Amino acid sequence: MKKLFPYFFTIAFINIFSFSAYAAEKGTIKGKVVEEVGGLAVPFAVVSVSEEVAEQPILTIQTDESGYFKFINLKPGTYKVKVSYVGFTNLFINEIIITEKDFDKNLGNLKLASEQSNLNEVVITAQKPLVEFGADVITYNVGSSVLAEGSTATDVLKNVPMVTVDIDGKATIAGKRSTRVFIDGKPSEYMTSNISDLLNVLPSDAIDKIEVMTNPPSKYSGDGEGILNIVMKKGFKVGFNGNLGINVGLQGNTNTYGNAAYKGKNYNLSGSAAYRQNIGKGNGESYRTNFFPDTTFYYNQFNNYDNKNNGGNFRIGFDWDITPKQNLRLSTNYNANSSDRVSGNQFHYLNEDYIESRLRNQANLGDGDNKNFVFNADYNLQTDTTGGKLAIGVTLNTNSNSDFTSYNRTYAFPSNLNPSLQQNNNETGNDGITFNLDYDKPVFKKRDQFEFGLAYNYRKNNNDLLVENFNYTTQEFITNQKLTNKFFFKENILSAYTAYNYRKNGWSLKTGLRAEYTNVNFDLSTGEKYNVNPYLSLFPNISINHFFKKRYNFGATYSVRINRPRENALNPQVNNADTLNISYGNPNLEPNYTHQMDFSFGAFGQKWSFTPRISYSISKGVIERYRIVNPNGISESTFSNVGSNTRIAFWLNGNFRPTNKITANASFNIVQGSYSSNLNSSLNRDGLSHGATIGFSMQLPYKTAFESNLNYNNNITAQGRNKGSISSSFGARKSFFKNMWSVRISTSDPFGRRNNNSVSQGLNFISQNYSTNNSSNVNLSLNYRFTKIKSTKPTIPPPPGKQ
């Protein structure tokens, strides 16, 4: 019997260990997070679970869209759960005991009470990570950024990983040739003649987060190789709350802003207003060498500008829960921008011996006004008890832009050349309507998701250009009939899509197909008419993701995207603001299709994440600006389907959070591009583009926070390269008076103004360009937060076993 005892002991130990392991796999804690007033579900609340005596959580997750959460694979023991969400008091549930026999704990409805005068705890503990890296999307949480306070959407985008913003304020995803900007899931470039005007006055304090989508799902338009989706705050806090602030810079720029929201039992009112004044100064140099069989000559150009811009942004939103299953949201947005511009140019003509033969001076004066109004209506209906949802949305927009510029050209020598005076008056109108219907429904016990939808987009653009030249003999302006013209553009796009999402055992398969029927026509007042043959485009989309071992994720995607030529590229009106470098559109452009594939891997820990990604794409009929130089030395720039382009891109994205007060994130990309053109052999070239973003933020003692960002980009183009440019920003914020007041000081490019260098080359020319602007600046911001809510206490359920 004694000999058998070790065997019995071993078998018993194995059984106990196996049962314990089985229990560890079965231990669960679940529940639903709701608002104390009204009982509405709280989606995306942060829920963490930790051992009773531990300070650091074991796992941290977010509630789903219905407010549910669930922790699995917990070992027997005593746990505590913490629930936090911006605008609500933190909720703690202690003494949650999991045993081998009682391993499934349902906490029921956990009611969050709205935050009162104690804002301090919410700000520090409920803060989301600044950057979240996912398999298909990168999310930049604007509210977690020190540098974002008191700034605009353009300023925020400069610090988003994988995003570059050029000197004109145009934002693109690194490695993508065409990027579209959406607001709350709807295209924004249709709403204004210049998207930069909208982003320059859109206050960052009204923005919740920015999503970087390198492979947009079928629900989104097939246009553009990537999407930047700006998600606005909805203001879902109980009671009346908001903030007021002012931002002042040493360069003379100012920004005042305010946000307010009121939430009743079943409705929400929100609004924001901002006014921005900005001063832009800079200079540039351009050196062009022109090669011809019998001679070589040079054009050197020196430019400077001093621009003043001011604009306002006003938003109003109304959200109404008609019934528990019906919701209506109405929102409006109004932008107004104006500008005063002063610039000067010097044109040096040099012969093949580099001896100057002519010097021309040009003084430019201009002013402009832009007004834009957008109305959105969205209706959501829960169609059944299993989670089916129907969404109907309508967007109406109207935009008007007026721009006036005068060009005064004189010659320093030779003195026998006559001066000239020209003025351009450009009036642009842009109107559109967008309709969308989307339906999604969980199927197979809510394991999978089925979606389908319809959309219609109509857009009309009118461009009226009046060019007049001054007659020094009669002392009057005469209309230039060759340059004066009116351009009328209409576009209709009818879309339909269907998608299916399969999920099981850590696997997720998303597949979808979108079809778009496009009808475009445009004509000129001179009589030319252009009717593009209507065309049907199909956009398949497939994404496979596998999450395993609780911390690893592998993903692969494939999609087809389109880059449609827009009115600015199609409009053949000639722009001779620079008579040595004229430009015009090409009405014969065709759409460009891109096939793109992404492979990603993610590793996630409690304090870090690491997500490398490889992307491959091939484009046919790439649309890019193309330049030629005539024998008289005048260059003509237009758009063309230059040929094909193949790209292989490698991204490294990482996030490290050693403590709950320190966060670091970094993104690096390198892109190998290969151009092939039947139009011009000089376009046949290979090259590398590369860029990097590094960010660091830290919560310091005495309610102080610090943040810094460093960005670098170096990109190739069809005819050359935009050489490396570096930008940096640093900021510190101090909160006081129970976090109701905060002051921030920040600096941009403190080590010197941003320089932009580029080179372009054609069959008979090579051009080098250098420019700099007043990006170096120091800003001081003051912000006040207010809230008026009746005092309530959070409802905490009794611990399990003590009910």
TrEMBL record:
Record's subcellular location: Cell outer membrane
Positions in coiled-coil regions: none
GO cellular component, one term: cell outer membrane
Leader peptide range in chain numbering: 1-23
Family matches, as SUPFAM superfamilies: Porins, Starch-binding domain-like
Main localization, broad class: membrane
Outer membrane protein beta-barrel domain sequence ranges: 383-784
Pfam family, one: CarboxypepD_reg
Record keywords, A-Z: Cell outer membrane, Membrane, Receptor, Signal
UniProt superkingdom: Bacteria
GO molecular-function terms, A-Z: carbohydrate binding
Protein name in the entry: TonB-dependent receptor
